């Protein structure tokens, strides 16, 4: 499966969102995980609702809308207040969309018509939501099982015509099916990456004439919206100076004067699919020797990790190797001292690289199916959001970082088993670096990988861009 730039355009232009392929994957997961697959469970239907229009609790405005990913996966439909029924046996999809409400038309215009829905989405039939209960009640053969997700079923919906209800398996089935992407999904992620690259590049070029983080966040959003991506995959992190050591910094309102570097972690969303890109660059256009040394280590960690990817690789091993590379680099600059293997065993590098190497990416920024173990007693692996082997077709972020966060590092400096490995006098020169993270989105293939992120990251490219050059 290889998705190159021209085919991204072709895929997105010529085809519908592959809801049927997704539904079939979910069906196969359900049937292969239920013991009584040959005793009637296949004679059932999947039921999913879209997100509802919700109002602010204290006024008459709507809350920002975010489509439910479970519904989207089986429809590609962005409408609120809708539902879908997928019949496992016939593999027929019926979409239920809101009817015309004459009171609403003056405010919101006409809702989508059935004909348009049939043309836009990969569904076999389209009815309106008030027809849902009679649709279930009039089913020719009473279905034995309804598969649904708890707390995602409106009170008005009746499952009385079903002999059995299964509220356990559907969510897991979709979560697991989402790990391996279809070419269409990869094209959406790739498109989001292209837009985000334009936005990252614009921010790098503007940074040395900007005065506050706010201006750079605004420029990122403007660049994405102009290119058709109105939604962000997550709240942008625009962190100057030592704020870069706060992993999910979202204040984005501090002056840039006197700061060394900017860490920008931001990604556009395209039709519910995320990009998640981080770049760190010098606000003056030139890294200091300390910043450069850390940038070199993080870039090495990232390139090595990316180059080791292919189907079947164990993500835990890639993460551990990134720690080994961090240790070698930090020994070279003198922040760490002692034996590399002993430092690895002691987990000292967690003081500087406290998060996981990356996570699956898809409809969610931290996508489903990663099987993290946040209760892991080993601090090196506790925040690793993907555990185990990567399948071909998965998309994973590769985002090593090295940070100088007093709150994290100080306990190591007070711990007898750790402090012997850290040279405090060398470390003192590095606090102002803040933090460096470099993050790309990578497709895992049978034979290797394809990096979907083209945002410049080589040291000379970043320095040239950050001086306002192109
Ligand atoms: N932007 C959130 C993350 O990188 O995981
Ligand atoms: Mn990120
Ligand atoms: Mn990420």
Tally the structural domains. 2
Per CATH, the superfamily of the largest domain is Creatinase/methionine aminopeptidase superfamily
Mean pLDDT: 95
Give a count of the beta strands, DSSP E runs of length 2 or more.
16
CATH topology of the largest domain: Creatine Amidinohydrolase
* Number of alpha- plus pi-helical segments: 17
In percent terms, what proportion of residues is strand? 5-15%
Rounded Rg: 25 Å
What is the CATH top level name of the largest domain?
Alpha Beta
Commentary on this structure:
With 470 residues, this protein is of the alpha+beta class. It has 17 helices and 16 strands. The chain has helices at 5-14, 19-33, 37-41, 69-73, 102-108, 114-120, 132-137, 169-177, 183-206, 213-226, 289-307, 315-333, 340-346, 406-413, 416-419, 424-427, 459-466; strands at 44-49, 83-87, 93-97, 125-128, 145-147, 164-166, 237-240, 261-266, 269-270, 273-274, 277-282, 395-398, 401-403, 435-437, 440-444, 449-451. α1 packs across α9 and α12 (315-333) crosses α13. The protein is globular, with a radius of gyration of 25 Å. One manganese (II) ion (MN) binds at residues 276, 359, 397, 399, 439.
């Amino acid at each position: 499966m290889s998705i190159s730039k021209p085919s991204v355009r072709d895929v997105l232009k010529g085809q519908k969102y592959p809801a049927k392929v997704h539904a079939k994957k979910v069906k196969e997961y359900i049937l292969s995980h239920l013991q009584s697959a040959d005793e009637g469970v296949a004679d059932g239907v999947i039921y999913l609702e879209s997100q509802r229009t919700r109002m602010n609790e204290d006024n008459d405005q709507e809350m920002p809308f975010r489509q439910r990913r479970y519904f989207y996966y089986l429809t590609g439909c962005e409408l609120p207040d809708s539902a879908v029924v997928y019949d496992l046996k016939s593999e027929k999809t019926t979409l239920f969309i809101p009817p015309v409400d004459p009171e609403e038309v003056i405010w919101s215009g006409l809702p989508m018509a059935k004909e348009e829905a049939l043309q836009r989405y990969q569904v076999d039939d389209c009815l309106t939501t008030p027809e849902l209960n009679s649709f279930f009640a009039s089913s020719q053969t009473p279905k034995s099982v309804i598969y649904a997700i708890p707390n995602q079923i409106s009170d008005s919906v009746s499952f009385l015509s079903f002999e059995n209800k299964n509220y356990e398996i559907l969510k897991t089935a979709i979560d697991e099916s989402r790990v391996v992407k279809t070419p269409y999904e990869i094209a959406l992620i790739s498109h989001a990456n292209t837009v985000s690259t334009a936005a990252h590049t614009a921010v790098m070029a503007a940074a040395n004439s900007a005065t506050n983080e706010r201006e750079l966040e605004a420029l990122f959003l403007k660049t994405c919206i102009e290119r058709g991506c109105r939604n962000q995959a997550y709240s942008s992190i625009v962190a100057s100076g030592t704020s870069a050591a706060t992993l999910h910094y979202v204040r984005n309102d501090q002056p840039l004067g006197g700061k060394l570097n900017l860490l920008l972690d931001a990604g556009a969303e395209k039709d519910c699919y995320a990009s998640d890109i981080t770049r760190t660059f010098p606000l003056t256009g030139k890294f200091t020797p300390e910043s450069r040394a850390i940038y070199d280590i993080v870039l090495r960690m990232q390139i090595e990790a990316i180059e080791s990817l292919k189907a079947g690789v164990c993500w835990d091993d890639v993460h551990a190797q990134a720690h080994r590379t961090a240790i070698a680099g930090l020994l070279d600059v003198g922040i760490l001292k002692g034996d590399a293997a002993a430092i690895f065993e002691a987990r000292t590098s967690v003081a500087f690289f406290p998060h996981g190497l990356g996570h699956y990416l898809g409809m969610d920024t931290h996508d489903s199916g990663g099987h993290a173990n946040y209760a892991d007693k080993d601090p090196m692996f506790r925040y690793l959001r993907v555990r185990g082997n990567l399948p071909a077709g998965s998309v994973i972020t590769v985002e090593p970082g090295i940070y100088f966060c007093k709150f994290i590092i100080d306990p190591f400096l007070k711990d007898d088993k750790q402090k012997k490995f850290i040279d405090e006098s060398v470390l003192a020169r590095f606090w102002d670096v803040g933090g460096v993270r470099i993050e790309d989105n990578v497709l895992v293939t049978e034979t290797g990988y394809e990096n979907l992120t083209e945002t410049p990251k080589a040291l000379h490219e970043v320095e040239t861009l950050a001086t306002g050059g192109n």
